[in-house]
Amino acid sequence: MTLSAVTPERASRVARPSRRALLAGTAAATGLLAAPVTAHASTNDPFDASNYHSCHGLDFVDGFPVPIPDWRSVDFRVNTEKVQTFPPSFRVTLPTSYRDSPDRNYPVLLLLHGRGGNFTQWTQGETGEGSGNGGDVISRTADQDVIVVMPDGGAGSFYSNAYHAAPGRRADWETFLIDQVLPFVHENFRTDPSRMAVAGDSMGGWGALSLGQKYQDLFRSISAYSGLADCRPDTLDGGLFSLVIWIGPALEAKRYPFTANGPGSIWGNDLDPDIASTYNPIENLERYRGKRLFLRNGDGNWIDFAEALKGHGDLYEQLRDKQKTIGQDVVEGDVSPNLERFADALTDAGIEHDHKMLKGRTHEFGLWQENFAEDLPGIMKALEA
Known about the structure:
The protein has 11 helices and 10 strands. By secondary structure, the protein is α/β, with parallel strands linked by helices. It has one domain (38-382): Rossmann fold (3-Layer(aba) Sandwich). Helix 7 crosses helix 10. The longest helix has 34 residues, at 315-348. The chain is globular and about 55 Å long. GO terms for molecular function: diacylglycerol O-acyltransferase activity; trehalose O-mycolyltransferase activity. Its EC number is 2.3.1.122, 2.3.1.20. Keywords: Acyltransferase, Signal, Transferase.
């Protein structure tokens, strides 16, 4: 596949719900309780922007949708009352067979980006957008019959609603994804809502685990690549993670300085434990029972740096190179015991899962690309695709 360049205008960019409320909010509004559905989306050219309509509280920003046939994708940017800090975007990447199979409905993979990323992160490795340091989902899914939905999730939202947002700066990212983006996709594309999976890297890994258990009726498969799974502050790694969640909303200020929320706007300055516990994977183990659960992380091991220098001549060059990754190593070093504690708790509870810690690997997209490539066949099997 040849991926052509795209202009910035085109691709730049608390209580746990009951089962009844969940299904009503995400499916009933679009007539999706009886699956599969064949009449909810146009059978015309998916790369004709006129085939798409606003719905579920999402209003298109001028100039969108933007079909990108070379990438088998359509980009959407919307205004929504649920997210007022900036107009969020999402990319929908279609199976190669989609255009020529008008009577077929497809499963959906919700793929979440990491902290500081955006809706292009999982395709940047081949499209050249942003830093170009990202995933290769377009080519990786070329022969897979699945619709991949890659939404904005805010720079540091951790895919939670912001319960303490400033007036006029609502940032309900969880509601945006579950009650707006997914129903929009089901209404505008030929999907099978009964076959969905969620996956993500770093912050997106937490998001996959968190939303995967909160909305357990939606997702068959849940995957976390270097995703934290315990935000309780009574451990060193959990305490550091809690601090990151507190700071998280302020990360938006880099791109949107006049509309970003400040630290503490997600769960409050005291990180309200009653709210946090509804999101925290390790406190909701039973909600993973019967799901396909895929967990991967590195060890972020930079303690053995001195050993790595032995037998090499240019120590300065090695030190300079190592400086580039020390931050990533520290982050992955926090993820590793956190995710392993979650995996151990799953084992103790007798809940099936697939967890591996990959020694010598750090917190970077090369690892997550490999994780996704390893994970994808299992996702497709769980989705019966």
